Amino acid sequence: MSDDLSVGVDLVDIAEVARSVKRFGDRYLRRVFTEHEIACCQGPPDVAAASLAARFAAKEATLKVLAPADARPDWRSIEVVRLPTGACKLRLRGAAARLAIERGLGPFALSMTHEAGLAAAVVVSGSAPGVDGQPTMEAPRG
């Protein structure tokens, strides 16, 4: 465990996400995004694609922070949750949460944006020691 910060940044072409949605539809959406993320990204196709691209960038940026040595966690184990205020935060489950615990990471801060055909996300995390050096994040069961 380290007291250092970990930072991940990613940039996504919105048109590429729009093409994936158009070509693969629901199969693509349900492989990459959670029900909550899909529900938050409704609207005209260009608006939905920009929101989905920002979330995809957030997932990639999170993976850069988690730095898996082996298999990458399932896309849906990294979720962008929209709060009632409109702000977004990260929720890690399953393999992503276990990796964060193993690395002693958390809490995570997220910033997303989209402009001029591109979506970007920045994820920052520090170490998260709890009692006796154990991380405070818990991996969900099941």
Verbal overview:
- The longest helix has 22 residues.
- The chain has a 3-stranded antiparallel β-sheet with strand order 1-5-4. Strands 2-3 form a two-stranded antiparallel ribbon.
- The radius of gyration is 15 Å and the shape is globular.
- The chain has a single domain, classed as Ribosomal Protein L22, Chain A (Alpha-Beta Complex), CATH 3.90.470.
- The protein is built from 5 helices and 5 strands; from the N terminus they run βααααββαββ.
- A hairpin with a 5-residue loop joins β2 and β3.
- The chain is an alpha+beta fold and 142 residues long.
- Helix content is 39%, strand content 27%.
- The two termini are 26 Å apart.
- α1 packs across α4.
